Amino acid sequence: MKNKFSYMLAPIESMTDSCFRTICRGADLTFTEKVNIEALAKNNEFALEKIKLYDNTPCQIQLLGQKEEPLKKFLANFTPENGFKGFNLNLGCPDPAVVSKGLGCAMMKRVSKINRLVHIIKDHNHNVSVKMRLGLNQHEKEKKVYLNLINGVDADFFIVHARHGKQNYSEKADLSVIKECIATGKNIIANGDITTKSDIEKLRDCAGIMIGRAAITNPLIFAELKGIKTPPINEIINEYLELAKKRNAPQKYQNNILRRIQQN
Ligand SMILES: Cc1cc2nc3c(=O)[nH]c(=O)nc-3n(C[C@H](O)[C@H](O)[C@H](O)COP(=O)(O)O)c2cc1C
């Protein structure tokens, strides 16, 4: 993690399933969309399907929740498969339905609780990362709760989506905070409105960058940014459709991707 600058595909609900993750050439790490820990502990069929890894595409499984017992129960029965690279804790979801339960970015101030979850996962010898916003709201951003979290939690790396929980995507991500995040000495992955080589040049002191929406419109963006030769996008779309058929991907996911992906 320390030496190699990593290019990561962001988790995007109802879009970045295993089929989409597979076609993102050049992405060093991908993530499942968020999956509820309690649903996993109860062996909920839909939750288990979301974490199924069909091939060797490097992937961390993103967990949403705060309860320790269901996490322990799930981990006790979990067997890593294919491209599994560890777990990621979702501390960034701003959805009111999630925040009202004290989850997602409403959890960011609970540093000891987060660290306990991290250590439960580490005790099972899995890697663990955190994905966060800058706080629940502007006030928490001003109080720099993101730095408290980074300083107080023993995760392998921290993905910082540079918005607070009350900001929507029409407001520009504030990547100026990344410098002080890096100054903690932890591994920081920058996220939010990163699309070009010049965006990345400004973030070279990070351990890597993460790209979300721009990768949905162009899944070859990672390869292009790295200067890797890629097949034409139409071939990649055909590969996606074949995988979706083979893996029985929900039609909703396919529609979401086909509506956004840019064809030549
Ligand atoms: C429709 C949608 C769904 C998302 N779902 C998730 C999710 O399940 N887990 C998560 O951590 N972030 C989720 N995100 C946030 C993205 O991972 C990412 O942090 C955000 O899009 C900013 O990156 P970008 O500017 O490169 O798109 C979602 C974003 C969008 C637009």
Give a count of the beta strands, DSSP E runs of length 2 or more: 9
**Class computed from helices, strands and strand pairing:** alpha/beta
Task: Give the CATH H-level superfamily.
Answer: Aldolase class I
How many domains make up the 3D coordinates? 1
Name of the CATH first level: Alpha Beta
Description:
With 264 residues, this protein is an alpha/beta fold. The protein has one domain: Aldolase class I (TIM Barrel). Helix content is 38%, strand content 15%. It has 14 helices and nine strands. It has helices at 18-23, 37-41, 45-50, 68-76, 96-99, 111-123, 138-142, 145-152, 178-182, 197-201, 213-217, 221-226, 233-246, 251-260, and strands at 6-9, 30-31, 35-36, 59-64, 84-91, 128-132, 157-161, 188-191, 208-211. Strands 1, 2, 3, 4, 5, 6, 7, 8 and 9 form a nine-stranded parallel beta sheet that branches. The N and C termini lie far apart (35 Å). The model has no long low-confidence stretch (mean pLDDT 97). The structure holds flavin mononucleotide (FMN). Flavin mononucleotide binds next to α11.
Structure described in brief:
By secondary structure, this protein is α/β, with parallel strands linked by helices.
Main attributes of the structure:
264 residues, alpha/beta, TIM Barrel, nine-stranded parallel β-sheet, 14 helices, 9 strands, globular, binds flavin mononucleotide
List the helices and strands and how they pair.
Blueprint (H helix, E strand, L loop, with lengths): L5 E4 L8 H6 L6 E2 L3 E2 H5 L3 H6 L8 E6 L3 H9 L7 E8 L4 H4 L11 H13 L4 E5 L5 H5 L2 H8 L4 E5 L16 H5 L5 E4 L5 H5 L6 E4 L1 H5 L3 H6 L6 H14 L4 H10 L4
Parallel strand pairs: 1-9, 2-4, 3-4, 4-5, 5-6, 6-7, 7-8, 8-9
Helix pairs in contact: 4-6
The protein binds flavin mononucleotide (FMN).
